[in-house]
Inverse folding.
């Protein structure tokens, strides 16, 4: 049991615990807040995996934008006041075992893959600090991911316009 | 050293928790929250595989960035839709939005 | 022309005339009778040529064709054809003459040349027409028969039947001719079909002769089954006759005897012997030429001709002077009995034609009795002679009736029966030719000595009976001869002698030449024809008995001439003269309105006589009514409607029920049900399955996940298997 493992276990436990609270909280605002914690945990996991940029991006985009958006949405729909009573629908008792089964199946399937228990290899990149620059170049180079990058941009614009249009209050 | 399998199990667990939330929660916004969980699990999976198997190039990370973008776009549009439905129907309970039935 | 070919043509001429009249010339009366008489003339000419050639020798003329190969391998052949031997030749002679005379007579009888009647109807006798003369007086005159051509067509067919019967060389075509004549007698007796009495008489004639014909057919079939052939040549040859002499196992008769008996029953029907005599008097409903044709010249003679032809069969086992075979005994008894029986009835009849009808029955009895006692030639001789004088008598009575009808038209009193002898009288002055010829015929019938044909033929029969020791037959036949003379004199006296008893008789008129010419011709034969058969013993061989020599040649076993005995001839002369005188004496003074002088003396017997001994009533009770019951009640009501229709109705009901079962238990539930099930099932399935689409997206995802997990585990489990 190395130190990395312990750190990972703690972070994993926090993230999974928070995730569980997301799906079982009675009040919706609590679910959103628990989500923030989960997202933090995931960012730390990115950090452990030597993906520093992604960890920061995670915090900025997910927590800074998406989670805040969730909180706004919760606030805007508070009039309904659904926070009393069970938050689970009719068939939650089918969903639970099913998810568990899926988890079991996934683990089994992954377990039968021969690369399952690979140990951490040496990072094969030249320099850690140059990773961001390389990532940037990869994203915009014609040999790289410029097309998906541009498409993602278009997607974001479309989502932006779409969200404004859909949610416009036409009174 | 943390074997790959731990990360994979972690991401599978996160995914299944998110799946449970999608299927079992009444509130539509709660469903979207659970979807975010699932997307994050996928991302963790992607990055873990990048680090352990293909760390010579940054393609894994590029893909993870794409997933970020998509997730953001999707949340924006999804919440806009929920707000719009809330304005019309005055409800956010997923079960009440069943106009596509027979 | 070769004789054999000529013989074939004899029946064909009248047949062609029949078809020509029926198909083409029905509307043209003159053309129809010309064709018919022309055909009769041609057949007469042919018959005379054949007769002359036959007398010259080379008999028999025969020609046969292979008509029908029989048997599985077509080895047996059935031949039909023509044959003229001596018997056929003499028969052809009288048939040709009488047929031609009757055809000619019919022209006048049916009033050819007279105007159409005022209210004449086809199917009824003509009623007369009112014609104004030069002074404007309206006279009622006889009118022409509406169905004139039809009559000639039928008698032409009749002639065809008779010629076929006479010239055929086998029993089958003989039977064909026999039946054709039966048909024609039905058609002609019922000629005036609108009269109910005529219709009834026609049916009676046909059915009564049918009874005889059935037995005859049985005889023919029996003969065929025993000998395998029906040709005369085969059945009359010695070998076959020997075979047929075997006992048949029925009442001790030989096979030939049994066949002969069955064939004889056919003659009993056709020639109106007792007990099947009842049809002949009723057949007087037909026009008089028909009566002459049927009951004198042709049909009844055909019956006797057939038994004469079959004599070798009947007489198997008999030799001249020996004891008679059972069949011959039966024939003798029936023949002689009928002769006397019919003669008795004739004495009590008032209708001029009825007397002649019973007279025919009586004379036919003579012929059959003659055959029964083995007098082959005598029977043939009497057959030929009888045809001439009976035809003469019938035609003469027709002439008398025509004269009387003229009187009825003159006075207009239609209630007077022109056929009743008690309404006649004194016609010798009004109708001299008819009177003379009728008297000649009557004398011939009675057998007036020496100058009439009847004398020689009747005397030969009596002589045969006397000479061979058949005393009973002789006495019966002699009595019958006495009565024959009596009723003939009665008839002539009442009709022609004395004074007219009614106004109609006073106004009678002689008939036209087309009617009187045949009378004269036949009268000549009635006198002279007998002279070919004078027994040789009488003249000491000066005049040969040509007839005996000629006809006896027909038989294989040459019959010896009977020793001439003067006694029977003397006896018969006495009997005849006594009878004639007695008849004249009783009836010569009968005045108008007086009843029959015999009525009171004979009392109840007279009533029986007049009513023909009630045989018709007896047959009605015994046969006719049960037949009606069988037809109507049993067959119609019970069998046809009850059983047959009942079965059909039951079957139809069963079919209906079965159909119902099929419909209700199979068609509706299974077939319709299946069809309905497809539709309804789909609808209800859809209805129920709709519930899956709740519109709730989480539920959709749940279902997806269930299947996804399922597939995942299926894949994983498949990895487990080695």
């Amino acid at each position: 049991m190395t130190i990395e493992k312990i750190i990972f276990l703690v972070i994993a436990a926090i993230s999974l615990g928070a995730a569980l609270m997301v799906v079982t909280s009675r009040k919706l605002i609590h679910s959103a807040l628990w989500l923030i914690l989960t997202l933090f945990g995931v960012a730390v996991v990115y950090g452990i995996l030597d993906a520093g940029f992604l960890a920061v991006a995670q915090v900025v985009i997910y927590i800074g934008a998406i989670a805040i958006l969730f909180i706004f949405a919760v606030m805007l729909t508070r009039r309904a006041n659904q926070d009393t009573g069970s938050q689970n629908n009719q068939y939650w008792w089918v969903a639970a075992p099913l998810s568990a089964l899926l988890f079991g199946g996934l683990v089994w399937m992954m377990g039968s893959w021969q690369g399952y228990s690979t140990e951490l290899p040496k990072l094969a990149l030249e320099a850690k600090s140059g990773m961001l620059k390389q990532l940037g170049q990869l994203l915009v180079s014609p040999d790289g991911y410029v097309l998906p990058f541009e498409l993602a941009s278009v997607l974001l614009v479309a989502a932006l316009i779409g969200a404004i249009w859909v949610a416009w209050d036409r009174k | 050293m943390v074997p790959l399998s731990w990360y994979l199990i972690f991401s599978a667990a996160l995914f299944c928790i998110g799946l449970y939330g999608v299927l079992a929660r009444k509130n539509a916004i709660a469903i979207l929250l659970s979807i975010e969980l699932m997307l994050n699990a996928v991302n963790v999976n992607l990055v873990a595989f990048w680090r352990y198997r293909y760390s010579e190039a940054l393609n894994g990370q590029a893909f993870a960035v794409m997933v970020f973008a998509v997730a953001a776009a999707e949340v924006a549009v999804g919440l806009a839709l929920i707000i719009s439905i809330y304005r019309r129907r005055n409800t956010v309970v997923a079960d009440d939005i069943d106009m596509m039935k027979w | 022309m070769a004789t054999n070919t000529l013989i074939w043509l004899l029946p064909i001429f009248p047949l062609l005339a029949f078809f020509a009249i029926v198909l083409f010339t029905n509307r043209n009366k003159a053309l129809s009778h010309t064709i018919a008489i022309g055909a009769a003339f041609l057949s007469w000419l042919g018959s005379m040529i054949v007769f002359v050639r036959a007398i010259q020798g080379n008999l028999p003329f025969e020609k046969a064709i292979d008509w029908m190969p029989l048997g599985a391998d077509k080895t047996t052949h059935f031949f039909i054809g023509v044959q003229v031997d001596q018997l056929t030749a003499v028969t052809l002679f009288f048939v040709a003459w009488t047929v031609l005379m009757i055809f000619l007579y019919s022209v006048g009888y049916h009033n050819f040349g007279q105007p159409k009647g005022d209210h004449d109807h086809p199917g009824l006798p003509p009623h007369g027409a009112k014609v104004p003369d030069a002074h404007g007086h309206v006279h009622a005159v006889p009118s022409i028969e509406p169905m004139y051509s039809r009559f000639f067509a039928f008698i032409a067919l009749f002639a065809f039947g008779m010629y076929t019967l006479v010239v055929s060389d086998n029993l089958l075509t003989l039977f064909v001719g026999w039946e054709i004549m039966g048909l024609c007698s039905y058609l002609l007796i019922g000629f005036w079909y609108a009269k109910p009495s005529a219709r009834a008489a026609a049916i009676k004639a046909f059915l009564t002769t049918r009874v005889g014909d059935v037995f005859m057919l049985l005889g023919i079939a029996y003969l065929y089954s025993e000998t395998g052939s029906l040709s005369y040549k085969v059945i009359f040859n010695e070998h076959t006759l020997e075979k047929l002499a075997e006992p048949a196992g029925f009442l001790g008769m030989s096979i030939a005897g049994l066949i002969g008996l069955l064939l004889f029953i056919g003659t009993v029907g056709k020639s109106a012997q007792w007990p099947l005599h009842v049809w002949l008097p009723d057949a007087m409903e037909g026009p008089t030429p028909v009566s002459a044709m049927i009951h004198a010249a042709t049909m009844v003679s055909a019956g006797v001709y057939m038994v004469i032809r079959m004599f070798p069969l009947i007489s198997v086992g008999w030799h001249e002077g020996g004891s008679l075979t059972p069949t011959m005994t039966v024939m003798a008894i029936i023949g002689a009995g009928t002769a006397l029986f019919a003669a008795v009835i004739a004495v009590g009849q008032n209708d001029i034609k009825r007397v002649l009808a019973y007279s025919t029955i009586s004379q036919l009895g003579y012929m059959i009795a003659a055959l029964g006692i083995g007098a082959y030639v005598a029977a043939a001789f009497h057959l030929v002679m009888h045809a001439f004088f009976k035809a003469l008598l019938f035609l003469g009575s027709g002439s008398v009736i025509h004269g009387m009808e003229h009187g009825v038209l003159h006075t207009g009193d239609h209630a007077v029966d022109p056929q009743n002898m008690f309404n006649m009288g004194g016609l010798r002055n009004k109708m001299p030719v008819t009177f003379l010829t009728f008297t000649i015929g009557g004398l011939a019938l009675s057998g007036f000595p020496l100058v009439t044909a009847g004398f020689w033929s009747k005397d030969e029969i009596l002589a045969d009976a006397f000479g061979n020791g058949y005393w009973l037959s002789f006495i019966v036949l002699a009595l019958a001869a006495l009565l024959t003379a009596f009723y003939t004199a009665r008839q002539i006296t009442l009709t022609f002698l004395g004074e007219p008893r009614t106004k109609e008789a006073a106004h009678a008129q002689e008939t036209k030449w087309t009617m009187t010419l045949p009378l004269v011709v036949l009268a000549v034969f009635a006198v002279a024809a007998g002279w070919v058969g004078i027994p040789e013993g009488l003249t000491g061989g000066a005049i040969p008995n040509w007839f005996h020599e000629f006809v006896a040649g027909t038989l294989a076993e040459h019959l010896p001439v009977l020793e001439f005995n003067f006694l029977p001839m003397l006896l018969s002369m006495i009997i005849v003269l006594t009878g004639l005188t007695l008849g004249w004496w009783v009836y010569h003074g009968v005045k108008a309105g007086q009843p029959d002088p015999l009525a009171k003396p004979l009392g109840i017997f007279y009533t029986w006589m007049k009513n023909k001994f009630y045989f018709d009533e007896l047959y009605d009770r015994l046969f006719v009514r049960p037949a009606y019951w069988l037809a109507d009640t049993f067959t119609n009501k019970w069998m046809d409607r009850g059983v047959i229709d009942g079965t059909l109705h039951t079957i139809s009901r069963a079919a209906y029920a079965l159909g119902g079962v099929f419909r209700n238990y199979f068609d509706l539930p299974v077939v319709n049900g299946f069809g309905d099930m497809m539709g309804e099932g789909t609808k209800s399935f859809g209805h129920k399955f709709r519930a899956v689409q709740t519109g709730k997206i989480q539920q959709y995802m749940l279902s997806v996940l269930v299947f996804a997990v399922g597939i995942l585990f299926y894949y994983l489990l498949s990895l487990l298997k080695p």
